[in-house]
């Protein structure tokens, strides 16, 4: 029991250390490529934080436990929205007036409803998976396209935040 508690504490320490390194690396990547930090967060950091969920879902599915894979994906999204945003709001007030947020929330709702619709028949098929991944790739392409600096050197995403 003591070893398990020590492992959880050590894991948490490494998690905090890794999160700090992730933020520093993401910020440096944004600076080096001249891309908005928000775009890096929506793409690279988003993938990085989703990697454990993808691994758990893949292993669960391959071992014949698709319910765990689905529960993991849904639970992760609920936790990311409610807990992560909730804790962040406890630490500091979040301004939610940006056009970026007004674009992202409808997309989040649309993807959630689309996934619900695909699963409503009780089956999430190979084709359904392709549709979900295709939608994600389309969204990433649009977000990256928006975030790349325009020819005049002005970042359209950062300019939205400066206007607030």
Question: What does this protein look like?
Answer:
- 82% of the residues lie in helices and 0% in strands.
- The chain has six helices and no strands.
- The protein is globular, with a radius of gyration of 18 Å.
- 7% of the residues are buried.
Provide a brief overview of the structure:
With 164 residues, the protein is an all-alpha fold.
| Rg value | 18 Å
Q: How far do the termini sit from each other?
A: 51 Å
Could you say how many structural domains there are in total?
A: 1
**Which range best describes the helical content: under 10%, 10-25%, 25-40%, 40-55%, 55-70% or over 70%?**
over 70%
Strand content: under 5%
Helices and strands, in order, run as: HHHHHH
What is the 3D form?
globular
| Structural class category | mainly alpha
Notable traits:
164 residues; mainly alpha; 6 helices
Set out the fold topology:
Blueprint: H1 2-33, H2 37-62, H3 66-91, H4 99-119, H5 126-147, H6 156-163
């Amino acid at each position: 029991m003591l070893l398990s508690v020590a492992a959880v504490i050590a894991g948490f320490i490494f998690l905090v250390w890794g999160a700090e390194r992730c933020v520093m690396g993401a910020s440096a990547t944004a600076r080096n490529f001249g891309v908005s930090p928000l775009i890096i967060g929506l793409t690279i950091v988003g993938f990085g934080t989703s990697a454990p969920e993808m691994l758990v879902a893949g292993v669960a599915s391959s071992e014949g436990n698709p319910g765990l894979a689905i529960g993991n994906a849904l639970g992760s999204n609920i936790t990311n929205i409610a807990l992560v945003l909730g804790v962040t709001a406890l630490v500091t007030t979040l301004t939610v007036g940006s056009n970026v947020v007004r674009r992202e929330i409808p997309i989040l709702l649309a993807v959630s409803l689309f996934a619900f619709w695909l699963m409503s028949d009780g089956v999430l098929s190979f084709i359904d998976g392709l549709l979900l991944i295709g939608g994600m790739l389309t969204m990433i392409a649009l977000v990256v396209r928006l975030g790349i600096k325009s020819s005049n050197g002005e970042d359209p995403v950062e300019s939205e935040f400066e206007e607030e």
